[in-house]
Specification:
Elements: E1 3-6, H1 12-23, E2 27-32, H2 35-44, E3 50-53, H3 59-72, E4 77-80, H4 99-114, E5 120-124, H5 151-172, E6 177-181, H6 199-211, E7 221-224, E8 228-229, H7 239-253
Parallel strand pairs: 1-2, 1-4, 2-3, 4-5, 5-6, 6-7
Antiparallel strand pairs: 7-8
Helix pairs in contact: 1-6, 3-4, 4-5, 4-7, 5-7
C-alpha cells in the first residue's frame, strides 16, 4: 500500500485515478480548489484518506497546500494533475500571471520546491507541447499582457514549459523518479466533447506512476497513455531552456529549487 497525493482530483483523470487507487487499497489524498468542491468529492469518494483545499492560482494557497501535505508525511507518489485550458485572461492577484499559466507551471514549481521529496513525482504534460513556441520568452505574459493572450497557444506553451521544468527537477532530485505524462485527449471538462482518446488509457498510466509499477530508475522520461514511453520534442532536453523556466519561476515566487 502506498501514500499518494493527486492535485486537481475533483473530476476527470485525477478523480478516476484516485477512485481506482482507493479500490486498490492505497492511501489517497485528494485536492480541491474550494471547500465546496472538497465536500462534493469526499461524498463521491468516501474512501479517500482526506481532501486538501487550496486555490492553485495563489502563491500563498499553493504554499499552504505544500505545508499541509508535508504535515501528513512523505508521499510515495505525488501527481501534479491540476491544470487549466480554456478561459479568458485572468490575472492572479499576487503575481499578475494569467491563471492558466500559474496553475500549469508556477503551482507545480512551488510544490516541487516545498514538498518533502516523494519517491515518484509526476508532472502532467500534453502532446500539445509540440505546438508550443519554443523561444521561452515572456513565459508568464508579463510583457505581452491581455492584448496578446490567446488561451490555446498559451496552453500549448505552458505544457512545454512544465516539461522543461520537470526535466530540470529530474536533474536535481536524486532518488526521486521525476516524469512527465501526456494523459490523452479525452472528453473531460478540460478536453471537451470532441476528444477521441479513452479516459481509461490515460488513467492506466496514472495508476502505474502512483504504484511505481515501472522502472523507477527512469527519471526525466515522458509517458503516454497505456503506460507507453513517448518521444517528446527534443528541446525538452535542452538544459539551457530548462534553466530559463526555473529562473523565471524562482524570480516570481522567490522560491529556489534546491539541488
Amino acid at each position: 500500500m502506498v501514500r499518494i497525493l493527486i492535485t486537481g482530483s475533483t473530476d476527470g483523470f485525477g478523480l478516476e485515478a484516485a477512485r481506482q487507487l482507493v479500490q486498490r487499497n492505497h492511501t489517497v489524498y485528494l485536492h480541491a480548489r474550494s471547500q465546496e468542491r472538497a465536500d462534493e468529492v469526499k461524498a463521491k469518494l468516501p474512501g479517500a484518506a482526506g481532501v486538501l483545499v487550496a486555490d492553485l492560482t495563489s502563491v500563498a494557497e499553493t504554499c499552504k497546500l505544500a505545508e499541509e501535505a508535508n504535515a501528513i508525511g512523505v508521499f510515495d507518489s505525488v501527481i501534479l494533475n491540476a491544470g487549466l485550458l480554456y478561459g479568458p485572461f485572468r490575472k492572479t492577484p499576487d503575481t499578475g500571471v494569467p491563471a492558466m499559466v500559474f496553475v500549469n507551471v508556477i503551482a507545480p514549481y512551488i510544490l516541487a520546491c516545498l514538498l518533502k521529496r516523494p519517491k515518484r513525482l509526476t508532472f502532467i504534460a500534453s502532446v500539445l507541447h509540440r505546438e508550443a513556441n519554443t523561444d521561452v520568452k515572456d513565459i508568464f505574459w508579463l510583457e505581452r499582457g491581455e492584448k496578446g493572450f490567446q488561451d490555446f497557444p498559451a496552453y500549448c506553451d505552458s505544457k512545454l514549459h512544465v516539461m522543461l521544468l520537470a526535466n530540470a527537477v529530474a536533474r536535481r532530485f536524486n532518488g526521486t523518479s521525476v516524469t512527465s505524462v501526456h494523459p490523452g485527449w479525452v472528453a473531460t471538462k478540460l478536453g471537451g466533447q470532441g476528444a477521441t482518446d479513452k479516459l481509461e488509457d490515460g488513467v492506466e498510466t496514472y495508476v502505474m506512476m502512483a504504484e511505481g509499477d515501472y522502472d523507477e530508475s527512469l527519471t526525466g522520461v515522458y509517458f503516454e497513455p497505456k503506460r507507453k514511453i513517448g518521444e517528446p520534442l527534443a528541446v525538452t532536453a535542452d538544459e539551457n531552456l530548462q534553466e530559463v523556466v526555473v529562473k523565471a519561476c524562482e524570480d516570481i515566487t522567490s522560491l529556489k529549487l534546491a539541488a
